[in-house]
């Protein structure tokens, strides 16, 4: 787990100056960063003022399970790539067997899902509520989805 700001508390909110910071968590493979990813991260970061953006990087094994193939870059390389993005405050690796423990550990106030994210989301709010986590889940808008999808970008090369 990487943390650009090591002084963050574990609660979903943190006091900064006079306002509280809301932890927003997003999930993805991020096998390269294209304009669609940047737009996705901007939407999440700017959803609310004083946000703290946490990006969960999909594990290689889970990418294989969901997409049917391994990503071009391994999970550590993808993590390093996303850490370089100035919109991102913290980068973590997702769980391997279950997606819930790392979400519970990070305690976001908001989960922002991409327009096309379907894996693990069907009962997410209910599953977290059963663990004592009340959370807002939002769905972000696509950004030129007929252009900025990794599999479409790779076929153009």
- Annotation field: number of helices: 6
Q: How many angstroms does the end-to-end distance come to?
A: 33 Å
Pattern of helices and strands: EEEHEHHEHEHEH
Q: Under the CATH scheme, which architecture would be assigned?
A: 3-Layer(aba) Sandwich
Q: Over all CA atoms, what is the radius of gyration?
A: 15 Å
Task: Using the coordinates above, name the CATH class.
Answer: Alpha Beta
Binned strand content: 15-25%
How is the biggest beta sheet arranged? 7 strands, mixed
What's the helical proportion of residues?
25-40%
What best-fitting shape do the alpha-carbon axes yield? globular
CATH superfamily: HUPs
Sheet/helix structural class: alpha/beta
Low-pLDDT segments = 5-11, 13-17, 150-157
The total number of structural domains is: 1
* Mean residue pLDDT: 86
- Count of distinct strands: 7
CATH topology, by name, is Rossmann fold
Overview features:
alpha/beta; Rossmann fold; 157 residues; single chain; 31% helix
Describe the structure.
- It is built from 6 helices and 7 strands; from the N terminus they run βββαβααβαβαβα.
- The chain is of the alpha/beta class.
- The protein has a single domain, classed as HUPs (Rossmann fold), CATH 3.40.50.620.
- It is globular and about 40 Å long.
Please outline the helices and strands.
Blueprint: E1 2-3, E2 13-16, E3 19-28, H1 35-45, E4 51-57, H2 60-67, H3 75-83, E5 90-93, H4 100-106, E6 110-113, H5 124-130, E7 136-139, H6 150-156
Parallel strand pairs: 3-4, 3-6, 4-5, 6-7
Antiparallel strand pairs: 1-5, 2-3
């Amino acid at each position: 787990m990487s943390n650009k700001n090591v002084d963050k508390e574990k609660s979903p909110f943190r006091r900064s100056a006079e306002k509280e910071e809301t932890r927003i968590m997003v999930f993805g493979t991020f096998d390269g960063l294209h304009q669609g990813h940047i737009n996705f991260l901007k939407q999440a970061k700017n959803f609310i003022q004083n946000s703290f953006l946490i990006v969960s990087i999909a594990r290689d094994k889970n990418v294989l399970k969901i997409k049917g193939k391994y990503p071009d870059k391994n999970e550590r390389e993808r993590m390093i790539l996303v850490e370089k993005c100035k919109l991102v405050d913290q980068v973590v690796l997702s769980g391997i067997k279950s997606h819930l423990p790392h979400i519970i550990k990070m305690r976001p106030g908001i989960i922002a899902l991409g327009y096309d994210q379907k894996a693990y989301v069907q009962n997410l709010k209910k599953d977290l509520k059963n663990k004592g986590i009340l959370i807002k889940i939002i769905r972000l808008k696509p950004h030129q989805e007929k252009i900025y999808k990794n599999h479409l970008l790779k076929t153009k090369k």
